[in-house]
Design a protein that fits this description.
The complex is a heterotrimer of chains A (about 475), B (about 600) and C (about 160).
Chain A lengths: L1 H16 L3 H25 L8 H4 L6 H24 L3 H23 L3 H20 L4 H32 L4 H8 L5 H18 L7 H8 L2 H28 L3 H23 L4 H20 L4 H32 L15 H15 L5 H15 L3 H25 L16 H19 L1 H12 L4
Chain B lengths: L5 H15 L7 H19 L4 E6 L7 E6 L1 H24 L6 H20 L3 H20 L6 H30 L14 H17 L7 H8 L2 H27 L7 H22 L4 H21 L3 H32 L10 H4 L1 H15 L5 H16 L1 H26 L16 H19 L2 H12 L15 H25 L7 H4 L2 H11 L5 H45 L4 H21 L3
Helix pairs in contact in B: 1-2, 1-4, 2-3, 2-4, 3-4, 3-9, 3-12, 3-17, 4-5, 4-9, 5-6, 6-7, 6-8, 7-9, 8-11, 9-11, 9-12, 10-11, 10-16, 11-12, 11-15, 11-16, 12-14, 12-15, 12-17, 12-18, 14-16, 14-17, 15-16, 15-17, 16-19
Chain C lengths: L1 H19 L3 H21 L3 H24 L6 H7 L3 H5 L1 H16 L16 H8 L1 H28 L1
Helix pairs in contact in C: 1-2, 2-3, 7-8
Classes of the chains: A mainly alpha (about 475), B mainly alpha (about 600), C mainly alpha (about 160).
């Protein structure tokens, strides 16, 4: 079954591209929606795990952590496809967009399912390539620049990861997680430690943490609206954060140094991201810095090294993909209807765009960690994990970071959505159904996970600890 | 799905549906009535059954979702369903031209769901959840009243009830701690020490919901500011049912109240004071609805007095009175609503002579007024006699308080009846052409009939509903039929005659029905007390507000200093940091790569430090 | 040992020249040169198959792709060129310095005795490795190629039409 998650999108792409251009162009959206919806359904209903014998041939496994990510991938892809339908201008570009999304899905499914360092690198590359093209395909100056920055820093990250894999291969004889772990645990040689450091840095670059985040604001801001939602929502998370969680828990182990590095990097990211977001005028740029901040929380929680910390990190990862995608969808709606991203020139949009306004309130309350939304629970688990592990200062600083998050989001809400309607925008209407439906779905998920949290704690959180 | 969940889920979903459907849809009244009917059918089906429904929910901290249906809760469920149905039918006409009709019906169904939840739940925390829900729904109810003061009254009700709910929460926490569990059916504590404190806190919550003194001050305000059907079933019936239900459970199940104990005396004192003070206030009201609302408060005093005696006869009396009061109070409020609808006002100065114009309403009023005064053969008489009996056994002074209360009750209703229905027609009565529509008359008539039915045939409610609650403590006594102690009956009849004479005297002296009790109003000591009461000196809410204002002025100055640290210092610091970071992000890609490489070098050196 | 050092030095010099040279065409040539030297190093490490791949793909295919892409662009005018390359030395002088310092630092820190590479039992047959052990990677590589081709088509087909 795990293999199907890769083969079915691949088959879809081949099917869409072999001919019959007109029919296929119309079919493309439905096919891609079906693929992502199928992925979500598979994970929710846990159908057919290990039922195909082909699993053994292709060394792919799905466990608790992978299924959380697969679910997120499915949901975010579904919503991005809908948003793409609403914001992209011409059918030809839409067709390319859907194909590229399907490619990214293949790449990300692969990343979360492999158990081997080199395979992970290969699928990372697939995701990265499709991401570059996705960011750039509007072909205007800024997207090209954003894509280029992502490309170069990604290449730097790749270099580091490959050299690290090479050194580890030298020591372990194979690159699968198990064998590398056996060879590396407790080993103290400087070369292995350098390899570990390089790999971690590579992943930090991919994840967009300070100080390796240089590409992130430009890439997120200049990408087209639906692509921003997709990349911010899931690509960075899978390529950077999931890989970090997987590698550090399963391969390198939580040594004191790694834990401290993760926690410090996480903490710095929280504050730099939040403080930078406070000063932004461009809607999407603010959301990009906010992403850096939230990813900082995930890494901070991961750095505690306890089962609760890892569970909190994974839960916050899931929540973040949901609400960050939603915020980007809202910014897409606003951008499409008003034609601008400058927050100073907007005000009172909630009067004419009520759904966008209210779903963005749900999303930002979840980001700031207000009960009873899902973000509150994950932040609570993170703070509790920090406290229980004895890092009292970190817990306090994390809470202060949450306050700053609340501050800049309130500022954004007040500037963009609430207040008197700006005269220029009096006549605009709510964005089309294609953009509203994903926003409502994601808001419902945020609310649902938050309110029904006692149910989820047994189905999502506890199995994740199986990673540990 | 388990049937026990239906009384809660169906009305709640229906309330949500009414919220969501657009305003233009004319069927929402019918829909609400249908849901009320459905609820009543389920309640009837569940009555007399014993069921429990438990599922663990979240697991931690004793938070179980457990419902329990047994005699008492089944009865209360049925009673609530019945009143809800009557009010729903009544409201279809009354609310026809008012504002916020959708919200009204939605809140009605919602509060029904919440009350069902409170009555059915067996877990203190679950009950607290529904209890708090009622608080919010009540706020919504009052706020849609449409008058200028509605929001203020809604806030006042919310604060008073919210504060007592907080105290009740503390009581629940202590109870749970002492008993080791939060499941009501498993708790059985003795009073004394910390348990007494828990008892008092729980009682505060229960009686405040029922509307006794000193937590009553929002009810008269709500009388004018909230829509009338709310008054009919809120302070009129629902809240009494729920509050006294919880009070009874506290005294019977959670703790075992023993007669003559300090707590029992305390309850009786609260009951007695409530009876007297409220009825004195009722006496001098000039507005139909306000007068009725003060009586509602007064009648709660009887119930608390009855249950507070801790004797079987008193408890049965108190519970029976709970049912009877709901019946006749509901009927009285509905007559007030009928008058308001036809004349447009409830100011007694403007009314008069309605008896001939609205005959059915008038007859229902008479029956209900006779019941509330305790006239023999009506239902109020029997429950009051039981309470008198119990009060007399506990102490002469309580009995006297109850009897004097009856006197004033009768007097004030004579005044009300005379002012509204007899005498020279007031300025507003001229507009009345006929009586109210059938949908408003039918509930009134049903209730009036019940007054007589439960009076004459009082064996039925007593044996069917209330004896099972007392259980073994009844000791084979039969409380039905005429009261055992005939002397009490004589005294009651005497009191009624006295009240009538007093009324005649007042009318002769002052000329109009409405002034019939002015002699009491302007009596030496009482006049000053009345003045102060009208200036709201006795209102704990107002006193609380005054205190709060002084306190807030004092802490304001302290706050300024702390404010500077928060508002100025931290904001400046954040701004400096933000600007610094903004400047650092120049967009120059080489810088970014340099940062990355720099970070990498630092990390590598850091990791390698562990080798040394 | 001496041969390896010479080759490595040449490699670094070629790479630096590729980056620092002014003309884009020269950079492409420099890339080809770097990969030639790299493949020679691989040959000396007893991996002929990898060396052949490196040579053909990087020195051959990639250079062809680069040069054909460059033929699609317009050259910039002389004034713009002068403006861009004005104070390159002044802006970037510290880069080689830092690289040399890092190299020295690594050399000093990594002279721990256990630098001897281990020789674990690695599967040596390439075909076996590719088709039996690393199937996921082969599938992944095929998909990457597909992605790359798709990307080129998406990004450049439009341009050709617009031109």
């Amino acid at each position: 079954m795990a293999l199907l998650l890769i083969l079915i999108p691949l088959a879809s792409i081949i099917l869409l591209n072999i001919g019959f251009k007109n029919a296929m162009t119309k079919l493309a959206i439905w096919l891609s929606l079906a693929v992502s919806a199928w992925q979500v359904a598979m994970i929710i209903f846990k159908v057919g795990f290990d039922s195909l014998n082909l699993v053994n041939v292709f060394n792919l496994e799905i466990d608790g952590l992978s299924s959380v990510l697969l679910l997120s991938i499915g949901i975010v892809a579904f919503c991005s496809i809908l948003v793409g339908n609403g914001t992209i201008c011409c059918p030809k570009k839409k067709f390319n967009f859907y194909n590229l999304i399907l490619l990214s899905i293949i790449g990300m499914n692969g990343i979360v399912m492999v158990r081997d360092l080199f395979s992970m690198y290969v699928f990372l590359e697939i995701t990265a390539v499709s991401a570059f093209i996705l960011i750039a395909y509007q072909e205007d100056k800024f997207s090209m620049e954003g894509s280029f920055k992502y490309l170069v820093l990604s290449a730097v990250a790749t270099v580091m990861m490959l050299s690290s894999i090479a050194i580890l291969l030298m020591y372990a004889g194979n690159t699968s997680f198990v064998m590398v772990r056996d060879a590396v645990q407790g080993m103290n040689s400087p070369l292995v430690l350098t390899a570990i450091a390089l790999f971690v840095v590579g992943l930090l670059i991919k994840g967009g943490l300070v100080p390796f985040h240089g590409w992130l604001p430009d890439a997120y801001t200049s990408a087209p609206a639906s692509v921003s939602a997709f990349i911010a929502g899931i690509v960075t998370k899978t390529t950077g954060i999931y890989t970090m969680i997987r590698i550090v828990s399963e391969v390198f182990g939580f040594s004191e140094t790694i834990k401290m590095i993760l926690m410090i990097v996480g903490l710095i990211s929280i504050f730099v991201g939040a403080l930078a977001a406070l000063g932004q005028n461009d809607f999407k740029r603010m959301l990009a810095y906010s992403s850096i901040s939230q990813v900082g929380y995930i890494i901070l929680s991961l750095g505690t090294g306890t089962a609760l910390g890892v569970a909190g990190a994974v839960f916050h990862l899931f929540n973040h993909s949901i609400f960050k995608t939603q915020l980007f969808i809202n910014s897409a709606a606003v951008e499409k209807q008003t034609g601008t991203r400058d927050m100073d020139s907007m005000s009172g949009l909630s009067n004419v765009m009520p759904v966008t306004g209210w779903t963005s309130v749900v999303a930002f309350l979840s980001t700031a960690g207000i009960p009873p939304l899902s973000g509150f629970w994950s932040k609570l688990i993170i703070v509790i994990a920090l406290w229980k592990a004895g890092y009292y200062w970190f817990a306090g600083l994390a809470i202060i970071g949450s306050l700053i998050t609340l501050a800049y989001f309130l500022y954004m809400q007040r500037r963009v959505f609430f207040g008197k309607i700006n005269v220029n925008f009096k006549d605009i209407k709510e964005a089309g159904a294609s953009i509203i439906i994903p926003a409502i779905i994601l808001a419902a998920i945020t609310l649902g996970v938050g309110i029904f949290f006692p149910y989820f704690i047994n189905t999502i959180i506890v199995p994740v600890s199986s990673v540990f | 799905m388990n049937t026990l969940l239906l009384p809660v889920i169906i009305p709640a979903l229906a309330a949500l549906a009414i919220f969501l459907i657009p305003k233009k849809w004319p069927m929402r009244e019918i829909f609400a009535v249908l849901v009320a009917v459905f609820n009543a059918i389920i309640a009837w089906y569940l009555f007399k059954k014993d069921m429990t429904l438990v599922f663990p929910w979240g697991g931690a901290w004793g938070m179980e979702f457990s419902f329990r249906l047994y005699g008492f809760s089944g009865f209360t469920l049925l009673a609530t369903a019945f009143f809800a149905l009557l009010i729903a039918i009544y409201s279809t006409s009354f609310m026809k031209d008012k504002e916020h009709v959708s919200q009204f019906y939605a809140y009605l169904l919602l509060i029904l769901a919440q009350i069902n939840g409170v009555v059915l739940s067996d877990n203190l925390i679950l009950m607290l959840f529904f209890w708090e829900g009622m608080l919010l729904t009540m706020f919504g109810f009052i706020a849609i009243g449409g008058k200028k003061e509605s929001i203020h009254t809604a806030v006042k009700a919310f604060i008073i009830n919210g504060t007592t709910d907080l105290l009740m929460m503390a009581g629940i926490a202590i109870t749970g701690y002492l008993a080791g569990t939060f499941t009501i059916s498993q708790i059985s504590l003795q009073t004394g020490g910390l348990a007494s404190l828990a008892f008092i806190l729980l009682i505060i919550g229960a009686i405040s919901k029922a509307g006794s003194m000193p937590f009553h001050t929002w009810i008269p305000d709500a009388a004018t500011d909230a829509p009338l059907p709310f008054m009919a079933f809120g302070p009129g019936s629902f809240e009494k049912l729920v509050g006294i239900y919880f009070l009874a459970r506290i005294c019977l199940n959670i703790f075992t109240l023993s007669p003559g104990s300090g707590l029992s005396t305390m309850l009786m004192i609260i009951g007695a004071i409530t009876i007297l003070a409220a009825v004195m206030m009722a006496l001098v009201q000039k507005d139909y609805k306000k007068l009725l609302s003060y009586h509602a408060i007064s009648q709660v005093g009887y119930m608390i007095l009855g249950i507070g005696t801790a004797l079987p006869i008193g408890i049965i009396g108190g519970l029976f009175h709970m049912l009877n009061n709901a019946i006749y109070k509901d009927c009285l409020f509905q007559t007030a609503g009928a008058v308001e609808k036809q004349t447009g006002t409830t100011d007694l100065y403007k009314l008069g002579g309605l008896a001939s114009k609205m005959p059915v309403t008038f007859i229902c009023f008479v029956i209900a007024a006779l019941s509330i005064s305790g006239t023999p053969f009506f239902n109020g008489f029997f429950s009051k006699e039981l309470i008198y009996d119990g009060a007399l056994e506990s102490g002469m002074i309580f009995y006297l308080a109850a009897v004097v209360g009856s006197f004033f009750t009768a007097a004030s209703f004579l005044k009300l009846g005379h002012a509204a229905y007899f005498g020279t027609p007031g300025e507003s009565t001229h507009n009345v052409k006929k009586d109210v529509p059938l949908t408003m008359l039918v509930p009134m008539i049903v209730l009036a009939v019940l007054c007589i039915f439960f009076g004459v045939y009082n064996a039925y409610p007593l044996n069917a509903y209330f004896m099972p609650i007392i259980g073994a403590a009844a000791n084979g006594h039969s409380f039905s039929g005429m009261p055992a102690n005939f002397t009490l009956v004589i005294i009651t009849i005497l009191v009624l005659v006295l009240a009538y004479l007093n009324h005649k005297y007042g009318v002769k002296k002052f000329g109009a029905g409405i002034k019939a009790v002015d002699h009491i109003h302007h009596a030496p000591v009482l006049a000053n007390i009345y003045n102060m009461a009208e200036k709201r000196y006795f209102d704990p809410y107002e006193l609380g507000l005054k205190f709060v204002r002084i306190f807030s002025k004092a802490s304001f100055s302290v706050d300024r200093g702390i404010d500077w640290i928060y508002n100025h210092l931290s904001v400046r610091a954040t701004q400096v940091a933000t600007n610094g970071i903004k400047k650092a992000h120049t967009g120059n890609f080489s810088m970014y790569i340099a940062w990355s490489l720099g970070g990498m070098i630092i990390l590598v050196i850091w990791i390698l430090r562990t080798v040394r | 040992m001496i041969l390896t050092l010479i080759l490595l030095t040449l490699l670094v010099l070629a790479a630096v020249w590729t980056v620092m040279t002014r003309s884009l065409m020269m950079s492409a040539v420099g890339l080809a040169l770097t990969s030639v030297i790299l493949s020679i190093i691989i040959f000396t490490l007893n991996s002929p198959l990898a060396g052949v791949f490196e040579l053909s793909v990087c020195a051959g295919l990639i250079t062809v792709v680069f040069i054909s892409t460059m033929s699609l662009t317009k050259p910039i005018t002389r004034t713009e060129f002068k403006k861009q390359t004005k104070d390159r030395i002044k802006r970037y002088w510290y880069m080689p310095v830092i690289i040399i310092l890092i190299g020295l630092g690594c050399a000093l820190m990594l002279t721990a005795p256990d630098l001897k590479p281990l020789t674990p039992a690695i599967e040596n047959d390439v075909r076996n490795v590719m088709w039996k052990v690393r199937q996921t990677d082969v599938l992944g590589q095929i998909i990457i190629l597909l992605a790359g081709v798709f990307g080129v088509v998406v990004l450049f087909k439009e341009r050709k039409k617009n031109d």
